[in-house]
Amino acid sequence: MLTYDLKVGYSCNNRCKHCVIDDSKDMLLNKAVSIDLTTNECMEQIDEMLKKRITSIVLTGGEVTIRKDFSELIKKCVDSNLLITVQTNGRKLNDIKIINAIKDVKNIKFVIALHGKSAKTHDAITQVRGSFIETCQGIKKMCLLGKNVILKIVISKINMLELPEIIKLASNLGVKYICFAFPHGHGAARKNFSEIIPTYSELKEILREMINIATQEKINIEFEAIPFCIIPYAMQLVGELKYLEGNTMCTQVREDTFDWEKVRKSIKRKGSNCINCDMDSFCEGPWSEYVETFGTNELIPVKLPVKSKRLIYKALNKKI
């Protein structure tokens, strides 16, 4: 399956402390160029990628739901018979115009950013008072409409002690799937590195508790940018495994389209000892900025029993 990740612009109604787009946005602002694509530019890019036989699309930003042409973009994707993912902070999902645009769309899912168990934490990260309440309302509305909702929680020093409780909150809101993403030290996260980026060692016991609570709440979870060796007892939860089943092409605002798999792997890094890990050929390692700051001593090679290794390799190779 070929997916197209289209950044429609960098305008957003949040100002998240971990947001990775700041560098790209600042580059355009310094050139006095619009940070958002026009409707026609979005349509042209979708048409161009349809020629390359994409089957699904991710509409992202910035914040796609604050655009006046949101319903037009959705209609274009529906008319093109694409599977649609809307990546959003969820704050506008309770608005009647947004609801009318998506309520009858079948092949659509929402990846919604939630970063705390309470307004105190979430709003501290988004730097917008009231954003937590609006996001929770949006999540609940999409669940009530029967839409496929995935929560996207960026792990940080600010919210890491609350992560188990966020799972319980998600369950109460009606969510069945959560992606926990380790922060990439880029953009705003680079500027706020010491405030945002925890170490894997600080997270180890929290991750174990999260997995236990997710099991109790019957919620599926995955972890992005957390290597196999950090959760060797739950390696099936490593989020990068999903990339074995397809590829994603991405377009930043006013930049060339690129292969996300190649770029993603190029901005991650492993340690010299990783070659001794039984999962090395399937692992991408941590973000480069993490390794530059904290090193690779936490990355302990995984050694599997022969039979388990054979079964795991067989299952993973089927996905490739």
UniProtKB/TrEMBL annotation:
PROSITE patterns documented for this protein: RADICAL_SAM
The cross-references to Pfam families, in alphabetical order and at most eight, read: Radical_SAM
A GO molecular-function annotation: catalytic activity
Q: Which UniProt keywords apply?
A: Iron, Iron-sulfur, Metal-binding, S-adenosyl-L-methionine
> Which domain of life does the protein's organism represent?
Bacteria
User: What are the residue boundaries of the Radical SAM core domain, all occurrences included?
Assistant: 1-222
- InterPro entries assigned to the protein according to its UniProt record, in alphabetical order: Aldolase_TIM, Radical_SAM_PqqE_MftC-like, rSAM, rSAM_sf
- What this protein is called in its record is Radical SAM core domain-containing protein
